[in-house]
Amino acid sequence: MSNQEQPQPQSFLQRITIAVATGFGLGKAPVASGTFGALLGLPLALGLTVLHEHLYLQISICAALSLLAVPICDAAERYFGEKDDGRIVADEYLTLPICVIGLPIARMMREGQVMQGLSLLGTAFVLSRICDILKPTPARQLQRVKGGLGIVLDDVFASFYALILTYGAQDFLLVPHVYPLFN
Predict the structure, then answer these.
(1) Is residue 91 assigned to a domain?
(2) Is the CB of residue 128 less than 8 Å from the CB of residue 120?
(3) What are the angstrom distances between the C-alpha of 29 and each of 77, 86, 119?
(4) Domain count, the chain
(5) Structural domain boundaries enclosing 83
(6) 60: left (phi over 0), alpha (psi -120 to 50) or beta
(7) How far apart are alpha carbons 31 and 54 in whole angstroms?
(8) Could you report how far apart the first and last alpha carbons of the chain are, in Å?
(9) Residue 37 falls within a domain, yes or no?
(10) Cα–Cα distance list, 3 to 6, 7, 9, 176 (Å)
């Protein structure tokens, strides 16, 4: 169904749900809609790193955001009438904070290591996009689950992969000889 044929959301709740599901319009980008939509997750991810010493809170917040994404994505999928429609990006931005669990990005920035912190956040973002596009096992298989749960589950697993890869890249990124600008 084309955008011109798309019925307008009827209720206030439906309008809000579709706005949130489409990343307030970022999901309607003509190319790389998931990447544009995922940009909304950067402030969420950075905010989550303030709690880096409270791992249980970070995990709880990430679980809550992921659970919140399920009914939003489900409603949007029904509205658009297409399995995991490209305009739906709430799954990208609401699961992005998983990629920074336990990372001291906010602390680094407070301590004057702004470029290192931003580099680590950017690395988590890029790795999350790569993992979401490649969908390593079991992310690809989980995408087959119907409805909002299937839309979100593959992103949750892709985000866990990105988290692992970001931890692996962390030591390399923070070596003073890699980025002389950080000194």
Answers:
(1) yes
(2) no
(3) 17, 9, 25
(4) 1
(5) 22-175
(6) alpha
(7) 37
(8) 53
(9) yes
(10) 5, 8, 12, 50
Q: Are 38 and 129 in contact (CB under 8 A)?
A: yes
Q: What are phi and psi of 61, to 5 degrees?
A: -65, -45
What are the start-end ranges of the H helices in the chain?
Answer: 12-21, 33-38, 41-48, 55-80, 90-95, 105-110, 114-134, 139-142, 147-173
Calculate the average pLDDT of the chain. 91
Res 3 pLDDT > 60: no
Give per-residue pLDDT as tens, 156-172.
999 999 999 999 998 87
For residue 6, is it within any domain?
Answer: no
Q: Rounded to an integer, what distance in angstroms lies between the CA atom of residue 114 and that of residue 178?
A: 16
> How many CA atoms does the CB half-sphere of 58 hold within 13 Å?
21
Q: Which helix (H) or strand (E) holds 111?
A: none
Question: Is 12 a member of any domain?
Answer: no
Q: Which residue has the higher pLDDT, 59 or 144?
A: 59
Question: Within a 13 Å sphere around the CA of 107, how many CA atoms are in the beta-carbon half?
Answer: 9
Question: What does the pLDDT average to over 124-141?
Answer: 94
Q: Are 36 and 27 in contact (CB under 8 A)?
A: yes
